[in-house]
Design a protein that fits this description.
- The structure holds two protein chains of two kinds.
- Chain A is of the alpha/beta class.
- In chain A, about 30% of the residues lie in helices and about 20% in strands.
- Chain A contains 41 helices and 67 strands.
- Chain A has a five-stranded parallel beta sheet with strand order 5-2-1-28-39. In chain A, strands 14-13-12-15-26 form a five-stranded parallel beta sheet. In chain A, strands 30-37-31-32-33 form a five-stranded parallel beta sheet.
- In chain A, β55, α36 and β56 form a beta-alpha-beta unit.
- In chain A, α31 crosses α32.
- Chain B has one domain: Rossmann fold.
- Chain B is α/β, with parallel strands linked by helices.
- A four-stranded parallel beta sheet of chain B has the order 2-1-3-4, with helices on both faces.
- Chain B has five helices and four strands, in the order βαβαβαβαα.
- In chain B, β1, α1 and β2 form a beta-alpha-beta unit.
- Chain B is globular, with a radius of gyration of 15 Å.
- The chains are: A alpha/beta, B alpha/beta.
- At the A-B interface, β4, α2, α28, α29 and α30 of A face α1, β2, α2, α3 and α4 of B.
Chain lengths: ~1500, ~140
Amino acid sequence: MSKDAIGSVMVVGGGIAGIQASLDLADAGFLVHLVESKSAIGGVMAQLDKTFPTNDCSMCIISPKLVEAGRHLNIDLHTMTEIESVSGTAGNFQVRLLEHPRFIDLEKCTACGECAKVCPVELPNIFDENLGNRKAAYQLYPQGMPSAYAVEKADTAPCRLACPAGLNVQGYVQMVKAGKYKEALEIIMEDLPLPGVLGRICPHGCEDACRRCEIDEPVAIRDLKRLAADQFNARGIEIKCLPPRDEKVAIVGSGPAGLSAAYHLARKGVKSTIYEALPAAGGMLRVGIPAHRLPREILDQEIEVITNLGVEIKTNTPLGPDLTVDDFFDQGYKAVYLALGAHKGIELGIPGEKSAGVRQGVAYLQEVNLTGRAETGKKVAIIGGGNVAIDVARSALRLGAGEVNIIYRRTRAEMPAWEEEIHAAESEGAKIMYLAAPQEVLSRDGQVVGLRCIRMELGEPDSSGRRRPIPIPGSEYEIEIDQLIPAIGQRPDLSTIEDITGLEFSRWGTMEVDAITYATGREGVFAGGDLQTGPWVAIGAIAAGREAAESIVRYLDGRDMAAGREPVKKENPVYRPIPKDEPKRARAKMPELAVSERKGNFKEVELGYDEAPGRAEASRCINCGYCCECFQCVGACLAEAVQHGMKPKAKTVEVGAIIMAPGFIPFDPSPHAPYSYTGYPNVLTSLEFERLLSASGPFRGHLVRPSDHAEPKKIAWLQCVGSRDINRCDNGYCSSVCCMYAAKQAVIAKEHSNKPLDTAIFYMDLRTYGKDFDRYVRRAEQEHDVRFIRARVHTVEPAQDNRLRLRYVLESGALIEETFDIVVLSVGLAAIDQTVNLAEKLGIDLNAHRFARTLDLAPVATSREGIYVCGAFQGPKDIPQSVMEASAAAAEASMNLADARWSLTRTRELPPEKDFSQEKPRVAVFVCNCGINIGGVADVPAVRDYAATLPQVVHVEDNLFSCSQDTQDRMKEVIDEKKINRVVVASCSPRTHEPLFQETIREAGLNKYLFEMANIRDQNTWVHMSDPVQATEKAKDLVRMAVAKSVHLEPLHEVLLEVKRAALVIGGGAAGMEAALGIARQGFKAFLVEKSGELGGMARKIHTTWQGENVQSYLNDLIVKLEHHPNVRVFLNTEAAATTGSIGSFTTKLVSRGETDSSTVIEHGVTILATGGREYKPNEYFYGQHPGVMTHLEFDEATVRGDGRIQTAATAVFIQCVGSRNSERPYCSRVCCTHSLKSALALKKMNPEINVFILYRDIRSYGFREELYIQAREKGVLFVRYDPESPPKVELETQDRLALTVTDHILGLLLDMNPDLLILASAVLPNENKKLFELFKVPVNADGFLVEAHAKLRPVDFASEGIFMAGLAHYPKSIDETIAQARAAVSRAATILSQEGIRAGGVVADVVYPDRCAACLACVRSCPYGVPYIKDSRAFIQPSECHGCGVCAAECPRKVITLQHFTDDQINAKIHAMIEKEA
Amino acid sequence: MNKSFEPEILSICCKYCAYAAADLAGSMRLSYPANIRIIQVPCTGRVDVIHLLNAVQGGIDGVYVAGCLEGECHFVSGNLKAKSRVNRVKQILEEVGLEPERVEMYNLSSAMGSRFAEIAAEMTEKIRQLGPSPLKLKLRKSA
């Protein structure tokens, strides 16, 4: 590797694998960029309830890791971030990252949750696998890191996009849903001054765009706007305006365009005067729309909203010779906005149109709307099909017309009027003649008496896309009428403006303006509304008015009017997917005035929603954009952390290596009908069940059926859903973990159940191949009565009462039917599409199953140099295997960067600590309001003042947020100014915030242990919200207790103990050699000690890996590398004879056998035990008595040798589990099934005619090894299952002829065979090293395997610090797993060897009164880690080894030992302070 | 029994499970009686007989130690040690004529926020039934 390698590593994926890799690397001197696509790290493990096989609470064990990774100085968390591209080469990559906006500032967010509280948008909780809900402002889960909220947002919702004014529809609909009508109006009135008006008459293009249509009908958006305006008077909304300016603007026309321009100008501080030709303001809203649709008082009130802002409206003041545009400028107006509208009706152009009784629709409506009446005939014909025609018809009916005929030349389908309007007109008595057109007005004495019409038919579509009406010759007919009202369209009346220089007009008689700025050709003159567009919708005119206002202000400022206003259109907008299980719900019906009550009046017909149905209607919105941008959270967040304007951020990071740990996705069973997953709430995936069991899950750990929350009596698990299945899906592999998690879930479910619970697991092969897994299953079966049923269930059938019926066939052939309350689908682990895409982008090879392809002999390396892989992206696996590989990947990634170690890491520069030892305690108390989280419940000033009365307290204050940067700075000032030597913060939880405050006081020169916290939020105001008095009292008590302890606090100092930068590796097999070479490559010394005279161990006997890679050449290569590496020293024929010391500094005496024994004393910082295992030599099946009977390893050896027994065999039989899974060795030897499959295939390849039988109990070809099983069946290998109760019987039929009998369970027959070869899959045993293990004080389990510190998260560590393990000594494993574990040990060791020293001290036990020690051994016996020992007749505790639990301190009868920071004085001080309440 | 009696209860919680569960109860905004005062210790194995006796002697009406689930102690077996000490204290209380139920041991995992709230409610109710600690009454009288 080049010298300029970069000392940082990127880890992609924040699950447990990614976290482990990051921690190892950061602890070993590398800067880590941990990239996670979600808003918090934790991955799937954080979702799990318990972990197998120890039933540990998953959150309990991962949570400390989350905190550690989240707070690590050298781990940069990049959440909500994706990788765009990677360039460069190993050692020097440039990674382009895209960080999606969180919309919440991580620096400011205190995770108080106020944003979520006010957020109206409910979304399925993805962390709970959609079983519960959360808000669009959310925290992934409470323990998540970073501990901050995020806002989920997609592209702008289609309703908003469809609105000409871009109204935030989703926002106000959500506010209506929440009953927050004022807030709804505030959102609407950002863009629109006339909510009640538009809530009645808007043609609601938004509803056409509504994606609810894909489920049932669109949300009644317009009616909801009206509901808001009905419930809260728009005049009561405070409109925020900029300070007034001097310039004035003239507006011509008081229709929606003019009003909107005036409104938006006023908000920008510009005063305007509106000139209106008619006697009343409102334009078409007033004179075009009858009062039964838009009551006058609504219009008047909402115009008042505008005039209340100082806008003046001059009615009866038309443009004309006395008032020209020039006059406005002369009068000092700086700009003019023309919004004259389109009030001139279009004539029919037929003979007789000038007859009396013929009147334009717009003119008719104008009179009706201004005066309340108009001359109306008895038989009225109306020409046209738009809303004007309908308005005329409905008005005429109200004014006494006997017969109203609407004549329209196309059919109803083409009619532009709204359907509900047409329907209303009809119900009120109007008739519509379709496919008819007027030809001539018939008159008598100049008075209309009839109309000649002609029938039409529809021809080809015209330019509007509608079919063109064509007259049918000869179809003329006449009707009798006394009034004709044409309503076929309007256009602007240009007479007063057509001669103005600079103004231009289109050939349709409309005004030409700039499409973006609405500026005309004359400077300072702008135009919009119907004048510009021709007759169009009010909302369009309102939008135009707003845009003109923006232009006018820019014009007044002399700024570029167009800059930044180009409309942005997103090509493929991303929305929330339509929820699959959203039930159909009918759109709320608008209540209407009875038809009988409509005659002779203009009372409003549509009556508006009542609150309850209206809010229910609003709840039909599916929140396409997730967040509705109602901005309630902005107001609720006192920390000012919410920032809706955040944009995606691109950044480039330079790293030396990349580790891919993006994990997996649970198989989605929803497309597969036989599982009845979709639509049946009681069919759950295993991950859903995990959430259901979880105490923090949707049902708080109560085991209930989702359908009715009743406690289940029977639960079934179906194994291999989405695994080992090439029929329903392409996942032919085994998912490796499902058998165990199903067993675990069954056991835990029983524990959760108050009543007897029946649990049944339906499986094909029980694959519980890991350490202590078989024991777990046996307990599940025998102690918990979990039923394990070997049967594949084909179909889950819904039964009565939401129960589920399963039919299955036992091996005996019996067909059984059972009904269950819950069916859990044990879904497999599948590849994530995005990860696959990313891998392809990065040039990483994938295997046939779309997981990262790796070699057995390089188990964490991808096909691209410098990029490594760990966790489930490499293949389905459990947590310990993921953690091992994570450490292995960390070792591999850093190996080539060893020269750059510590080159990019950060350290904190700290001032020297002040010495207060001679001073009395001076305590400062900071009480946090946490926005309103504490202060909104408890009386914080009272708590603060109370604190001031406590002894030794010399300073108190309260803060809005104690964790904010300004408070941190303030604390440091106070400490300095008032010579503070103890600090108490009363706020949230020490679990999350103690380290922050400790850092702060340390930066101010105080020892970090001179700090104490009172948890008055999480454990007080959050749980006593309804009781402010008690919460205040409790806060005072907690503060008093904290102060009492603080007075007793002592500074504690950690000391740096020297580290010997060398590792002792014991065992010269593959694991030991890998470990030694890895240590050497990391730049440290390795002493490799092998008992025998040769390196290689068990691997010497293995020829190929399961994927067929050559093990021997690998071994030889490894040995050569070891022997040539300057950092390695190999000791053959050597054993460790004595060892002393502790983490970082051990001394071990090695004794080498030779002609004369020689001893060497070495010093090393860590020890790695890789003492290996061996093959069990069977007593069974004539082993050793017949030449055809051999073990796996002997078979391999014979095969390689070309042994005749192998080549001539006609029948070969493998017997599995020889010496394993029995009472003597109740564990699975893990490797044997794979080995038998591989060997069987090899035999078949050598001789396709050979009969090969595998006699097995469960075929455990986990992961991709399943490929071998599939191949073996394809090649004709015969599999016969046997029960341990009736194992195969082998006899010697003749001297050299074996006879084997086994019962075939499926056929129910005894099978006889005469194997020429009988290959025994014999157990893997650990090498016996009792003395060695005692020497190093490491524990072994009942089977003789070494016991790790924690089965899940510390699989290569021992509980005693500084000692690690790898290989078969830990548990049977394949060579790829051995290599991974050995490299993991290297990584773990490197976190120690790379340190400048081991920090010891802090919260550890200390023998404070050694003179009083009676050497009673209480401490020695009680310590769970065996740390204390007796030295010079006194207890001695090595601080670097102490874990800090304090058991010894409590046990010590003479109180010689104490636990620092939790001394008896300190604990008792707290207890006494609690008692001293009244004192 | 005195209806207005509000028990004073001390809860000694281990850092990894019970204390974290108490925080989680907060995150989940569960509600439980405000009678509990929590002291955090690294492991319930740190809790000494003398701490419990001090609390009782000082007139605290109820004391409970809350640690990890049995078999899941972060420090292997500290919670089992705590259990036996709690039992020892119960014996002592019985010997001196106090109700042993005033001192209890509970086990829960860090994910069991709602269980924490339940325990707080259970313990409060139990002590309410038992009434004020006789020692407290005595101390008050003598004061």
